[in-house]
Amino acid sequence: MILYNSLGGVRQEFVPHEAGKVKMYTCGPTVYHYAHIGNLRTYIMEDVLEKYLRYSGYDVLRVMNITDVGHLSSDADTGEDKMLAGAKREHKSVMDIAKFYTDAFFADAAKLNIKTPDVVEPATNCIPEFIEMVKTLIDKGYAYFAGGNVYFDTSKLDNYFVFGNMNEEELQVGVREDVTEDQNKRSKNDFVLWFTQSKFEDQALKWESPWGLGYPGWHIECSAISIKHAGEYLDIHCGGVDNAFPHHTNEIAQSEAYLGHQWCPYWFHVLHLLDKRGKMSKSKGGFLTVSLLEEKGYDPLTYRFFCLQSHYRKPLVFTFENLDNTVQAYNKLVARIAKLSADGASSGAPDLKAAKPYQDKFKAALDNDLNTSLAITALYDVLKGNIDDVTKRYLVADFDRVLSLGLIEAADAEIKKAAAAEAEKAALQEKYLTENGLAKAWVEEQIAARATAKAEKNWAEADRIRDALLEHGIVIKDSKNGASWEIKQS
Ligand SMILES: [Zn+2]
């Protein structure tokens, strides 16, 4: 598989450290508020990547943290503590806020068919690991204690700006201009590993450490949690592009200083979701959530489809008009799949040989830097293809292991709905016949006789039968599947 690697800024063949196995890390949510749909775009695309790696035969271990401590409002360790701000806003404790928004995150993820990572670890579970890592960094000369906090000394690295190839605008997103410089830092890019003195307000959650009662910095979480569960060699690290600097830059600095070797060779960054005001962000207020989409009547899976229709490395513009177009496309797609089953879901097995070229095309799209929009084109090609319906349905289900658009489920629901409508109609007709003293067999005989007359080009007789039935309030409807009847609407 070819992936664009933010580290180095090139497309390259993905080769994991250990053949057949992939260790993947995802920066999890800071659980002080709902995730907005821009955050969720990143999780959707990471989910597709994980599922595609599994589809390709890799044994995947995916680890994600939950940030429930230590994340300040600027990613560069300044500003208000996010968890504390959330707790104040809602007059709850930090732990209550963490629990509530962790549950909300996974509820939203489930609605978007995002698989829960194999390991999910809240930062507050790993305090001993953070302390151990900070201790080692001090012992190795990469960290120093100043003004009550422990800082990572970026001047000790030959190359701190590892994502130097990314453009300035992308790199500066996480850094706010309006905050005073921390005087304890030896150099501007140094960052906090452990706080004992909050620079702003006192923290609710604190733990004993060799440096006094305090709490971890945000960046150390991901390094320690990743190494704890995925070991010293991580294959691929994912996140939103706004995390490349300073968060991921700092993760690399401290992990490699700690380990003494390269930590993670592949970095997968998803670009922003934009709305009319630019990048969607919580600080601007009025951000869109999954619940809000549902309140407006959208199935969250149509938002997933919307994301899949464009490439993860391009900014995506969200408007409700765009989403409406996606809803139409999704409904049409489901209707086509529902029809397949009705026509051809007979007992036959799929033709695997005929399916292969379609699967190859699907794989080629995703092997090309996870080109999901081309993968969806491959799905449409299946529906247009010159193969039987059983094989088509098999391929839709196969591709949906990666796309996770709930296509088969939605199509089956459609089929069920149509069958229920059909049954209701039949019951009404039955009732009508009984009430009017007509036998069903007689009506069927008449319809058959008319078909025979038509076949013999005896139009007069065909019309006579039609009119006779009409006198009983029975209207014949012709279709390519033969004639049926309906109750005449008065
Ligand atoms: Zn992280």
Task: Explain what this protein looks like in three dimensions.
This protein has 490 residues and is α/β, with parallel strands linked by helices. The chain has 3 domains: 2-175 and 184-295, HUPs (Rossmann fold); 332-431, Up-down Bundle (Four Helix Bundle (Hemerythrin (Met), subunit A)), CATH 1.20.120; 436-487, no CATH class. Helices cover 48% and strands 16% of the residues. It has 16 helices and 18 strands. The chain has helices at 37-55, 82-90, 94-111, 127-139, 168-172, 218-230, 244-259, 290-295, 300-308, 320-344, 352-367, 372-384, 389-403, 407-435, 440-455, 459-471; strands at residues 2-5, 10-13, 21-26, 59-66, 72-74, 78-81, 119-122, 143-146, 149-152, 191-195, 215-216, 236-240, 266-270, 273-275, 278-279, 316-317, 474-479, 482-487. β8 (143-146) and β9 form a beta hairpin. It is elongated. The mean pLDDT is 91. Zinc ion (ZN) binds next to α7.
Element layout with pairings:
Blueprint: E1 2-5, E2 10-13, E3 21-26, H1 37-55, E4 59-66, E5 72-74, E6 78-81, H2 82-90, H3 94-111, E7 119-122, H4 127-139, E8 143-146, E9 149-152, H5 168-172, E10 191-195, E11 215-216, H6 218-230, E12 236-240, H7 244-259, E13 266-270, E14 273-275, E15 278-279, H8 290-295, H9 300-308, E16 316-317, H10 320-344, H11 352-367, H12 372-384, H13 389-403, H14 407-435, H15 440-455, H16 459-471, E17 474-479, E18 482-487
Parallel strand pairs: 3-4, 3-12, 4-7, 12-13, 14-16
Antiparallel strand pairs: 1-2, 5-6, 8-9, 9-10, 10-11, 14-15, 17-18
Helix pairs in contact: 2-3, 4-6, 6-7, 9-10, 10-13, 10-14, 11-12, 11-13, 12-13, 15-16
The structure holds zinc ion.
